[in-house]
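Protein Record: Sequence and Backbone Structure Tokens
======================================================
Tokens: labelled as protein backbone structure tokens, with as many entries as the chain has residues.
Question of interest: how does this chain fold, as expressed in backbone structure tokens?

___
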Amino acid sequence: MLLAVLQANSAVLDIEANCRTIAAAARDAAARGAAVLVTPELFPVGYAPRRVRAELEPSLLPALQERLAGIARDNGIALVYSLPRLSGQGDWQISATLVDARGNNLLSYGKVHLFGPDERAAFSPAGERPGVVDFNGIPTSMVICYDVEFPESVRAAAVGGAELLLVPTALAHGFDDVPQVLLRARALESQLTIAYANHSGEEDGCRFLGGSVVAGPDGGLLAEAGGEPQLLYAEVDPGAAARERRAVPYLDERRPDVYRSWGL
């Protein structure tokens, strides 16, 4: 299965421009035969947590969700997008959604680990376990940005059966070890493929790293981007995770009862 990752510069609160960028990437990725396009964290509204919270009218979100589903449907490609959402209690959270090539919602997720004072001032943390769905025959899950830096988040997805993890992110310049070292370790220790889609350029004073990657279940890089806008492609082998898990059965040989006695 061919997977596409959008790395681009978003315009803060310029929803029209950002949706055009996503639509153009979806059109190009579909023409290449990609099954899914993964876009960065909060890309349709731009990554500026305090401004988004202060200036974005939440009543616009349903129409924006439908517009993004329409981009998937019009181009015949599944899409991962990230937007703010309001919880049932009225809390603002960062979310990610996977829609299929017909625009139907397959999976949603709320960010559990918020990064830095801006996110914590603007949003509340979610608490749901990463869900898993069958996507083109591959058990697939999602987390968002900082979540992937916690082994518990990725392991929860893997224990739930995930073999592919889709990660919208907004990683600032200077954190090069996250995609190059930490993310590859997460893929290796939980033996799944991770697709990590980052912003590039500068948005509201934050300079982004770029450096989007796709890492396989052996920890090897299947694709990596530099610092500039790019549409990244990687071929995901549907049997790779199972082969790695047979060779070294990390998931089967865990000792959760022992870990609990350690206070974990």
User: Anything to note?
Assistant: Residues 13 and 51 are 8 Å apart (CA to CA). The first strand starts at residue 2 and ends at 7. The two ends are 36 Å apart (CA to CA). The mean pLDDT is 97.
